[in-house]
Amino acid sequence: VKLSQLGEFGFISRIETGAVVRPGDVVRGIGDDCAVTRGRPGWLRLVTTDLLVERVHFLRGAIHPRQLGAKALAVNLSDIAAMGGIPLDAYVSIAVPTNVPVEELDEIYAGLKLLAAEWDVNLLGGDTTASLADLVVNVALTGEVEEDRVLYRSGARPGDTLFVTGTLGDSRGGLDAILNGRAAESDAARELVRRHHEPRPHLREGRLVAACGLAHAMIDVSDGLSADLPHVCERSRVGVEVFEAQLPLSPELEAYASAHGADAAAFALSGGEDYVLLLAGEERLPAALAGSGTTVVPIGRVVGDGRREFVRRSGDRVPLASSGWDHFRSIP
Amino acid sequence: VKLSQLGEFGFISRIETGAVVRPGDVVRGIGDDCAVTRGRPGWLRLVTTDLLVERVHFLRGAIHPRQLGAKALAVNLSDIAAMGGIPLDAYVSIAVPTNVPVEELDEIYAGLKLLAAEWDVNLLGGDTTASLADLVVNVALTGEVEEDRVLYRSGARPGDTLFVTGTLGDSRGGLDAILNGRAAESDAARELVRRHHEPRPHLREGRLVAACGLAHAMIDVSDGLSADLPHVCERSRVGVEVFEAQLPLSPELEAYASAHGADAAAFALSGGEDYVLLLAGEERLPAALAGSGTTVVPIGRVVGDGRREFVRRSGDRVPLASSGWDHFRSIP
């Protein structure tokens, strides 16, 4: 069996078998944005980890090392946000080609520490090692969330509205600009590239959504809406309808797409790395958050049967294909 | 500044600056075998993480994938052992070249899960991603230890005896056999290679040493005695004397060394990857552990001045040079 046939999530389901041998304290193991174990009274402990590999997740020449360090932490903060949690302590493992100057490493850690300080996160440990080829950064991050506020991928109910906490497709637009040599071509392109390199973890949004008590399921959009939404469908055993006309697009993405004939809706649907939160909850959720500074945008609804549909502006209904990023399929 | 000039531990000291922004719950940050934070009443929480990189830590052709998976966990279990702790939950990040067969990955996880089950450790999460060059495995591991039993690198006192919990140099002997094409040449070589590929975490030894109340400092021997002992000296602000005649050598290492003219004492002093525990404590510690099945072997003593000496069989005293493994110096 080839990995490219099995796919990333096919492989992950193989890992789950026999993974928990001491179930007492485990609330959720493999299969959500964070692992969840029992913590101090009334609270749950969260752990997440993400690995960034040179030439797969980033190009050393394209991203500033300060951005790289911050992004390595941000993608983990986003996983804590998706549970409605508060981040606590980070552990950073790094494998470094020996030709990397110390100053570049200093910048990676400077970026990481800046974002860590912004969110009150300690850097408590890690591992440093050599690499003969690519620079590799792994961050493991702990956090916590109240037992009565935690949100999982499971829990979405038929009749729920689907929301996102920010615009979709910007990161993919930035990547498109980088790959096509247009990164500095316009203000819109520059802003999209910045969003690609400097994702903002939606921790505040996650806390507010969890606190309001009107959401039933949450996940962060890391691999793309069309790849991440199926996880909610599977874990919640529901279907979904997503409306193209409702996908929130930034003015920058619309300007970039119209200037270069790019498909903004396709970027929004399957682009990945937006790190906004996707949630299912009650229709009145936006009203409950009014005045908080956090906006949640409805993009579709949860249905009771198994269908996963994308409703085009034309009214055509097409299957919501999982066309987002899959590490074992997307790389040849 | 080049990394090779700064060295691995020179770089780590740069990372420590500004790493802790929320000190309330932090007992130990960067600089011990595990990070230590406050846990449930009477207990401390431990976290450690270790990154293994192909061609730096292992050769895919030389180590069986099942051994690789187990070793990736074992080196982290060893860090928990060095604090006197109990391991809890593991999080595994893996970057996989897409030509690696799924069956090889299955074997990596099978080895990891077998060792995890042996020590009652859950596999609760991780990350899977592609790599364009090397296979990379990072394990983050949590654990806990009683507040009144935890052992740090600091705490060694002048007059303490230095002990190790097992033979030294076997892993380096195994590596020597692999690198010189002698891995299958004799029973002794085969056994040394096995010990190199299948390090046994000294968790039971760590618990017993911590429980007996007679040890003052502990560390695991991962980079080599001559590289790890200076960490105890620095954190405890003491000096040490180590006696060549007392270094415990296995019959297999002695047989291999005499057959091939290898320097067994040099392997024992600076070989690395033995994953035995090194501790400083009261002279009567071995007597207190008699009958437990755990043996601790005295190899030297702690002194009040700053000297770090290696006393040869001849009686000559030479500086205990930190000739162990340093990722940023040892790789050209």
Structure report:
2 copies of one chain form a homodimer. Chain A is globular. In chain A, strand 4 (86-97), helix 4 and strand 5 (122-131) form a beta-alpha-beta unit. In chain A, 35% of the residues lie in helices and 26% in strands. In chain A, the strands form 2 sheets. The first copy, chain A, has a 7-stranded mixed β-sheet, sandwiched between helices. A 6-stranded mixed β-sheet of chain A has the order 1-2-3-6-4-5, with helices on one face. The longest helix of chain A has 18 residues, at 65-82. In chain A, helix 3 packs parallel to helix 7. The first copy, chain A, has 332 residues and is of the alpha+beta class. Chains A and B meet through helix 1, helix 2, strand 3, strand 4 and helix 4 of A and helix 1, helix 2, strand 3, strand 4 and helix 4 of B.
Write the layout of secondary structure elements.
Two copies of one chain form a homodimer.
Chain A: H1 3-6, H2 8-16, E1 26-28, E2 35-38, E3 43-53, H3 65-82, E4 86-97, H4 102-118, E5 122-131, E6 136-146, E7 161-164, H5 170-179, H6 187-197, H7 203-212, E8 215-220, H8 225-236, E9 239-243, H9 251-260, H10 264-270, E10 277-281, H11 285-288, E11 297-303, E12 308-311, E13 317-319, H12 327-330
Parallel strand pairs in A: 4-5, 9-12
Antiparallel strand pairs in A: 1-2, 2-3, 3-6, 4-6, 7-10, 7-11, 8-10, 9-11, 12-13
Helix pairs in contact in A: 3-4, 3-7, 5-6, 6-9
